[in-house]
Give the backbone structure.
Amino acid sequence: MQPGGKLEITLLKKERSGWLSTCGLPFALQGIYDIETTEITKAEEFLKQGVDFRTQTEAVELNTDEKSVRLRSGEELRYDFLVIATGRTPVLPKAVEDAMNNVKRVHTFSNEEDAEQIYASMRDAKNGFVRGRGIIALQTAVAFAKRGIKTTVLGGPPSLLPSMLDADMGDILKEYLERNYDIRFILERKEIKALNADAEGNVRSVLVEGADGEEEEIPADVVVIARGFRPNTELARSAGIETGESGGIITDKAMHVRKKGKFLRDVFALGDCVEVVDAITHKRRLAQLASAVLVQARVIADNIVSEISGEVRAYSTYEPCISPTVAAIGGMLVGSVGITSEEARRNGIKVLAGKAQKVSKARYFPGAEKINAKLLFDAHSERLLGAQIVSSAEGVAERINELSLAIKFGMTAKEICMNERCYDPSLALLKDVFVDAAENALKA
């Protein structure tokens, strides 16, 4: 820190790019724009603003007692405040992990380098195989299908996007992708047993084994593994920083990390590598979403300023989260916030569920699209706990943001039914789909 309290900021990034939109990479594979377009701000722009931004630079050791960071190059940096944002690491099936170094055209999907390698493998591919059923997996499968690649997706029961959608809502998306992109889904309890390659080491098929021991060999000349991510906490743990049940770094409300049972005032963590507290279950979990890290970054910035200036009012906290999520998957928009029915069951929460299907505007108005909605309410208080949308209509993100506030402020099913809403036949229905869903929940 310079005299007068001015911060000198050093930013270390293992990858070569500046600020990159990782969420935009699957759409680049679909041909909507070039991969390079996803670099929002180049490293040079940070340097012009006085930030010592070092790309292709890796920290290999933290010493919180000496307040230092050692780089792979051997250089040692000192800090007044340290922010850990080491991200996440792909989870690989055992058979894939063993074969990754020997079989070509098998990829994970975490950054721009992965996207470039997948794109190169897609160019002459005829058969694609995706392991996973989350957002990245499904967007990759759509990219394959759009390029004319016959695509198989290996997931798991019961349906798609299980962290976002109940099975009945996930099935709407599954049927849409089967019908419009001819994607084959395998959602039984199966796993990859082996990767088979040709004489040059390029993958040619995936051997899949079911729970009953039956095997199936599926042709594939490009494979993407996107079955989930675990927090990348090795650097923090080697420094004695504590992690929780989910594997993420434990932090307090100010995003300070914990070591030997005590929170460190000068070390923070955020993003995919940290645990959060769920606003509904009150349990610790991961929230590997850009929306979460943005708020966490603001909290940390406020608290560093508060420490430097001594201004108590600058201090802020990260509150329990509800993880509003939205995704565009092959022309279908999917959104969710709060708890799913399965999460409610696992946590002993009884819910009232209401579903409805309506159109986005008056039926006689051009461009009306179906909206499938599902709301989950606490069975005792009737307060909103979760919401899910699957629709080809625009406005899904705005609806999820609205319902996020409804959950945050404890709206009940009756209050949703009685809430005034704007109306114009070219824009919205007089009686919204969520009013129908809430009424149906009250009838359950």
The first strand starts at residue 10 and ends at 12. DSSP finds twelve helices and 27 strands in the chain. Residues 92-227 form a domain with the FAD/NAD(P)-binding domain fold (CATH 3.50.50.60).
